[in-house]
Amino acid sequence: MPFSAVLDACVLYPNALRDTLLRTAEAGIYQPLWSERILAEVRGALVRNGRPEQAVDRTLSFVRGAFPEAMIEGWEPFEDSMGNHVKDRHVKDRHVLAAAVRGHADVIVTLNLRDFPSSACEHLDIEIQHPDTFLCYELEQAPDVILQVLREQAAATGKPPHLPMSLEDVLSSLENCGTPVFAATARSLLQH
């Protein structure tokens, strides 16, 4: 079984990054994990930022349906005990670490690295990774698979009312989502 990664709400929010992460999981590179609370955070952020509720609910329904084994349940009893592992001012992030512990995750993928100090998570045997680091590692381990994921991601765009995206458009979107090293490395590999 591939290693598992809890995807924090902040990496599931941006469309391009969510698509790349989920397509990478679909290719069998890793097992994604989340909780209903994480998905509720994603939903709330998307709706607050103007996405129609019906479209958001449809997207999250597809996510749940594509990865039914990703849902972590029973993490709630662990949440309070995560207080020493998540910075005090980020009490709201304790549930992410609790889900990771309950789901036996290897990694938490998050843009909020400072909320999860690695020194506080080491003894839990859970690594905290920025999505740029995570995707670069995946690209290094399975370059052909990841480049194919990116090609398929670009090919799947262009459904009305949206215009099709080129592979370069996808990479630019990923750069804007906080994964510039991954995008640059993928560009380099695609040119060879």
Structural class: alpha/beta
Name the average pLDDT: 89
The assigned CATH architecture of the largest domain is 3-Layer(aba) Sandwich
Helix content estimate? 40-55%
Highest-level CATH class of the largest domain: Alpha Beta
Order of helices and strands: EHHEHHHHEHEHHHH
CATH topology of the largest domain: Rossmann fold
Low-confidence stretches: none
CATH superfamily of the largest domain: 5'-nuclease
| Biggest beta sheet attributes | 4 strands, parallel
Pfam families: PIN_3, VapC50_C
Keywords: Hydrolase, Magnesium, Metal-binding, Nuclease
Domain PIN: 5-113
InterPro entries: PIN-like_dom_sf, PIN_dom, VapC50_C
Core attributes:
4 strands, four-stranded parallel sheet, Rossmann fold, alpha/beta, 7% strand, globular, 192 residues, 11 helices
Task: Give an account of the 3D structure.
The protein is an alpha/beta fold. The protein folds into two domains: 128 residues, Rossmann fold, CATH 3.40.50.1010; 57 residues, no CATH class. The protein has a four-stranded parallel beta sheet, with helices on both faces. Helix 7 links the parallel strand 3 and strand 4. It is globular, with a radius of gyration of 16 Å. It starts with a strand and ends with a helix. The relative contact order is 0.15. Keywords: Hydrolase, Magnesium, Metal-binding, Nuclease. It comes from Streptosporangium lutulentum. This is Nucleic acid-binding protein.
